[in-house]
Amino acid sequence: MRHSSGPLILPALFLAFVAAAWPQELPAQPQARPKVCVALVSNATTTSLFVERMTERLTKSLNGNKVIAAAMDSATTKDRELRPTLENSAEMKTRECDYVLLTQITDPKAHRTEPRDQISIGGKTPSVDASDPMGGSSGPVYRDSLEIDFALFRAGKPTAVTNATLLEQPSANVSDSLVQAMDRAANRVHHELKKK
């Protein structure tokens, strides 16, 4: 009786080929992007501000390749010391965020409870904004800067990852100038998250 080895060789060759082509190590999984919950910006000044617009801009500026950002329904505390409220913590857990970002607009003359990193320096400088109704023939307008205090907290941690202040010289349209400052705050948060 004659045996044919042809049919047995083909499956063996196929298995050898598959084994050689199969990667010996699985590639490293890409690192998950952190999710940041952005609390509604709090206005602790006497100036009327469109905080919803600022919160939206901050969230949009944070969203990118490295970060997922989600605007929250709960607001940043009105207290001078930035800490997540019970509402912030509950919403952060519900939304499954890794971090919460608190932002508050304040008057720089207000009493500071703790030192913060100062990112830029403002001051009482004259407004040269062409849209300023008080500029022009009556001369320059002097406006006090407003502070944008922000703090980033990791879920379950009582101390802030970053706690900083931007000083912003508002223009005639205060909300517009502060909306642009939200981009600077987002850049600082991105920088901190890159270190993690």
Q: What is the succession of H and E elements? A: HEEHEHEEEEEEH
Question: What is the third-level CATH name, the topology?
Answer: Rossmann fold
Measured as a percent range, the helix fraction is 25-40%
Overall mean pLDDT stands at 76
- Rounded to the nearest angstrom, the radius of gyration is 27 Å
3D shape: elongated
Describe the 3D structure.
The protein has one domain (30-122, 142-194): ABC-type transport auxiliary lipoprotein component (Rossmann fold), CATH 3.40.50.10610. β8 (146-154) and β9 form a beta hairpin. The strands form two sheets. Strands 1, 2, 3, 4, 5, 8 and 9 form a seven-stranded mixed β-sheet that branches. It has a two-stranded antiparallel ribbon with strand order 6-7. The chain has helices spanning 6-21, 51-62, 86-94, 174-194; strands at residues 35-40, 42-43, 68-75, 99-106, 117-118, 125-127, 141-143, 146-154, 160-168. α2 (51-62) runs parallel beside α4 (174-194). With 196 residues, the chain is α/β, with parallel strands linked by helices. Helix content is 30%, strand content 26%. It contains four helices and nine strands; from the N terminus they run αββαβαββββββα.
